[in-house]
Amino acid sequence: MSLFLRDYLTVVWFGLAAVLLAGLLLGVSAAIRPSRPSYDKQIAYESGVDPVGMGWSQSQIRYYVFALLFVIFDVEAVFIFPWAANIERYGVFGLVVMLAFIVLLLDGLVYAWKRGLLRWV
Amino acid sequence: MIAAIVAQLGEWTAPVIDWHALAPELILVVGINLVLFIDLNIGEARKWAMATLTGFVLLAAFVPVVTLAVIGDASREMFDGRYVVDHYALILKAIFLLVAYVVVLMSQNELEEGGYYQGEFYVLMLCSVLGMVMMASSRDLVSIFVALELLSIPAYMMAAWRKRDVRSNEAGVKYYLLGVFASAVLLYGMSFLYGTTGSTKLVEIGEVLASGDLIAMQVVAIAFVIAGLAFKVSAVPFHSWAPDTYEGAPTPVTAFFSVASKAAGFVALMSLIFLAFPTATGVYQPLIWVLAVLTMTVGNVMALRQTNIVRMLAYSSVSQGGFILMPLAVAGTGDASQSAVRAVIVYLLIYAFMNLGAFAVVIAVSRKTRSGEITSFGGLFGYAPGMAAVMTIFMASLAGIPPLGGWIAKFNVFKTVIDAGSGAAYALAVIAAVNTVIAAAYYMRVLRQVWMMPAPDGDITPLATPAPVTAALGITAIGTLVLGVLPGLVLRFGDLQDLTGALGR
Question: Is residue B23 included in any domain, yes or no?
């Protein structure tokens, strides 16, 4: 049982270290930084556009769909570039596997297309 | 610079792929595409065909599992032993496919009548099942993680399937946030494991951990990995998402989560414990001991207070999870390591039958009563004696009453714990025995409503149970009864005694 306690003491130290580190970083910066809040500093995006209207504003849902569709091509690129750099090394096997991968990714695009998500309005 | 790295890598040879061993996964992938494209091209009036097609895909994926089992090779390894198809994997694949088939039967009418997106639902469910089937074969940290995400991400969407219902949205968001948090904890632990052992392959991690005393990082890694998976199996204190998600999600989806997703978490836990941490008994055993005791006790005590049948079944499934954890808490002690895997798998199989059955009864009855309260089961014996009988089978089996499956499952678990023969194991057995008695109270409360109380609104028109739900009830009731009367069927199942050997130890 003492072995168990000794083992889990490391887990406790680990947790304490995490809390301590976060506390230290926030505490030190709070202690040494000057604090002079003003109206301009408190609005969102200190150096950006002034917020207009309420926090609960509606935004166009289509942007979100397009962002999701972008992920299809993004993921594709991440895996295709390393493969393309070594296309000869991986030979026919690599080609077949990559084609299967692309077809599976394209499923998502075809689905979106058939459901009419690619049309704006 | 890249050219220099490539030159060092040397000749690359294509991995040898055992197509027969991969056939269940490949059939599921083809099936997912098939369902997706056929669904896109047929009219709303013929969407019912999607459920049938999904059922056939699952049965088709079952065929290679059976043929592989009949051939009976000890194990087929691919990718340098990182993907293994052995008896252990085959039994679990069979369980997952069976559960998915029953869930399709249960969800068919629910989806049709609700006007939900049927094709998409089955595509997501098949993706989730693919992840579970992969999980059974994964013997590497990376493939375990990929399988876990593949089975979880569709599940987050399935939880929020009734998108106009606020509760269902809440269920999806809670499940998603806590699931992602758990994945992060799990990955954090895995990164420590890889960093301190230099391998992602479970067997190699096990060899490094066995070679000397554990260093502090490895203890932290094991604790984090187990905590991450404890979220998936909804072990207390990581269970807080379970009741809300189970209540808000559509009932067939809840059945799917409480059986299949939970089983997948246990599979990952078993692979890790028996392959990667077998020598770290001092670290994982006490942690799982505490988790098991908390899980069964808190689950039971909370279940006692519930008035909603789905919430009660949610807490009951939390507490059943505690029983499934028990053999793992003694997995490294004495004779228990031989029987621990078998006890867990037998429990998972029987639990799948009885819990799915209980949810099927809830679906059938709430189609008429439109209520989730336990009191709405009043008078069931009067107007639907058959349904009352099968509900009795499932509740008695969950409580662990002898001639039924649940009894064999509990018996095996207790036997394993007693085999271990240590003080902690006996203490665990005593706590579990007390919990079995507590559990009987709330299962019997449902039966009291079913057999003794009058119908709350006096409505005694018979139930109109659709054929698929009846089929699901039949499969689960027969499974629960047969496994209870003929436990030899599962106890010799794949000679699980050999499992620790097949797992590569």
Answer: no
Locate tokens 């056929």: which residue? B38
Which residues are within 8 A (CB) of B337 and not within 5 positions of it... i.e. 6 or more apart?
Answer: B274, B278, B331, B500
List B138's β-bridge partners, or say none.
Answer: B83
**How confident is the model over B260-280, as pLDDT tens digits?**
999 999 999 988 988 888 888
β partners of residue B78? B83
The label of the residue with tokens 């695009």 reads A109
pLDDT of residue B503: 42
Count structural domains, chain B: 1
- Subunit contact A107:B33, Cβ cutoff 8 A: yes
**Which residues does A contribute to its contact with B (CB < 8 Å)?**
3-4, 7-8, 10-11, 13-14, 85-86, 89-91, 93-94, 104, 107, 110-111, 114-115
Mean pLDDT of A58-77: 80
Through-space distance between the first and last CA atoms of chain B, rounded to whole angstroms? 41
* Chain A hits for B28, Cβ within 8 Å: none
Tokens 């053999």 sit at which residue? B327
The answer to whether B146 contacts chain A (CB < 8 Å) is: no
**A116 SS3 class:** coil
Residue B504 forms part of a structural domain: no
Helix (H, G, I), strand (E, B) or coil at B308: strand
Would you kindly state where each structural domain of chain A is located, as residue ranges? Answer: 1-33, 59-121
Could B214 and A7 be called an inter-chain contact, meaning their C-beta atoms sit closer than 8 Å?
Answer: yes
pTM score, whole prediction: 0.88
Its domain, for residue B487, covers 280-498
Q: Is B149 a member of any domain?
A: no
Pairs of CB atoms within 8 A across A/B: 41
Taking CB atoms and an 8 Å limit, are B223 and A11 in contact across chains?
yes
Fold type of domain A59-121 = Methane Monooxygenase Hydroxylase; Chain G, domain 1 (1.20.58)
User: Residues of B with CB below 8 A from A94's CB?
Assistant: 14
Low-confidence ranges of chain B (pLDDT < 50): 494-505
Evaluate whether residue B420 is within a structural domain. yes
Say whether pLDDT at A11 is over 90: no
Which residue in chain A is spatially nearest to B424 when comparing CA positions? Answer: A1
* A91 with B14: Cβ contact below 8 A: yes
